[in-house]
Amino acid sequence: MIRLVASEVLKLRTTRLVYGLLAATLALAVVGTLATVAMSGEVAQTFPLDSAEGVRNVFSNAGAGSIFVLVLGILGMTSEFRHNTVTETFLVTPTRGQVVAAKLVTYSVTGLVFALLAVAVTIAAALPALGSEGVDVSLGDVAGVLAGVVVVTAVYGLLGVALGSLIRNSTAAVVVALAWSFVVEGLVVGLVPDVGRWFPGGAASALSGQSLPGSELLAPVVAAAVLIAYAAVFAWAGNRFVVRGDVT
Amino acid sequence: MALVVAEGLTKHFNGLAAVEDLSFEVEAGTVTGCLGPNGAGKTTTLRMLLGLVTPTAGTATIAGRPYHQLDEPKATVGALLEASGFHPGRSAANHLRVITTAAGLPQTRVDEVLAEVDLADAAGRRVGGFSLGMRQRLGLAAALLGRPRVLVLDEPGNGLDPEGIRWLRGFLRHYAAEGGTVLVSSHALAEVSQTVDRVVIMTRGRLVAHTTLEELTSQGNLEDVFLELTSPARPAPAVPAGEGDDR
């Protein structure tokens, strides 16, 4: 199993995608942090910076990479089918469940690494920006948010692999993931928040501490359980699908 | 001793028979050609032997076991399949390192096999810029990583220039002379006649001949015999099989 994870990591490191998405994640975390500080309390639907919610929203920008990690996980599986490398992968490891397991491990750890780096740059950007606004924050106050961001990003890597196993076409899988995250979840969370907060994105928002005035999200522990349950179900289904199919 | 054994292999895709009740054996130390027109089921057969396609019925074993039960698959069988691919953005050497890492093979094998297939100079180049012939040689390099006893090759001559074809022929003869066993599919009959000792001829998913090349060509030249055996005008062997596409 260690060999297979090492091989998956090598696959990831030897193409350019991961570096581009990491750069995008870090850039978005910094830009988002600075923008949130600038807009908080000034723009409708934001909390003032001197509120607990306002500060949490600033640091929740560390979660900027979750969507990129989701895409990375999806492509980690679908690109094997797109480029037919899956043939060699299954020749080396005919017990295919092990391949899926190695990818699940690899991409959740990748999510963890992305999140930790994003947390670091977010803190580095947020503390001086908040300081210049006269807001003094101790990191202890936002530790929960930062921990939540790390969990979300790691689980999104896993969700990506699972989704890529179910929808093996790269484009289709990415489109479904983005449409779900930005359109379906956005609508449902906005229109029927009681349902939306139980969705993966709703649970992720609860964990990463994003909040809008007037909306109520799940408690972090419940949200973590919900998100992990989604990941487990998708991973189980995706694994069955990959293990059974003919590779032609 | 038979190293590769197919027994009653059958594969239906969506109700269409691609391969029907196919049985044959590949003796150790021989080069066996799997011949047949397009759509005969050659590729499907090789993929069933390698555990990539699950047979509808029948069994396929290599060195006495189904592929997925081999302890060290890469050290037992090397495969080069028509559609086995490469990530265009990954270099040739990294493509091979991914495999040695997963298979637990020494990393030194990467440079060795690249030299063996004459790709040492292209080791660091992205595969996206490779010609078809270079891809075929890289595929063969991947097959050789584990120093396998058996090679299963699907149309390995595709995309090779005349020099590459000659090189491949010499390589296969040498590999068999050293005790290796080869099962190679092809429809390049002229080429096959210079390379193989035994033939398995398929048409419409069924076996029509399983013999030595010598025996077969004693009846006439290979092309004539092949066309006679695989002629659509000839009554379908035994039970009619569907027109399985060549997958």
Could you walk me through the main structural features you see in this protein, from its secondary elements to its overall organization?
- The relative contact order of chain A is 0.14.
- Chain A has 248 residues and is mostly helical.
- In chain A, helix 1 packs across helix 6, helix 6 (96-132) runs antiparallel to helix 11 (220-244) and helix 7 packs antiparallel against helix 10 (200-208).
- Helices cover 78% and strands 0% of the residues of chain A.
- Chain A is elongated.
- The mean pLDDT of chain A is 89.
- Chain A contains eleven helices and no strands.
- Chain A has helices at 2-13, 17-39, 52-59, 66-82, 85-92, 96-132, 139-166, 170-191, 193-196, 200-208, 220-244.
- The longest helix of chain A has 37 residues, at 96-132.
- With 247 residues, chain B is α/β, with parallel strands linked by helices.
- Chain B is 33% helix and 26% strand.
- Chain B has helices at residues 42-49, 73-76, 92-103, 108-116, 132-144, 162-177, 189-193, 213-217, 222-230; strands at 2-13, 16-27, 31-35, 57-62, 77-80, 150-154, 181-186, 198-203, 206-212.
- In chain B, the strands form two sheets. Chain B has a six-stranded mixed beta sheet, with helices on both faces.
- In chain B, strand 8 and strand 9 (206-212) form a beta hairpin.
- In chain B, helix 4 crosses helix 5 (132-144).
- The two termini of chain B are 29 Å apart.
- In chain B, 48% of the residues are buried.
- Chain A binds chain B through residues 3-4, 6-7, 10-11, 14-17, 79, 83-85, 87-95, 244, 246-248, and chain B through 43-44, 47, 50-54, 67-68, 70, 73-74, 77, 79, 81, 83-91, 94, 97-99, 101-104, 142, 247.
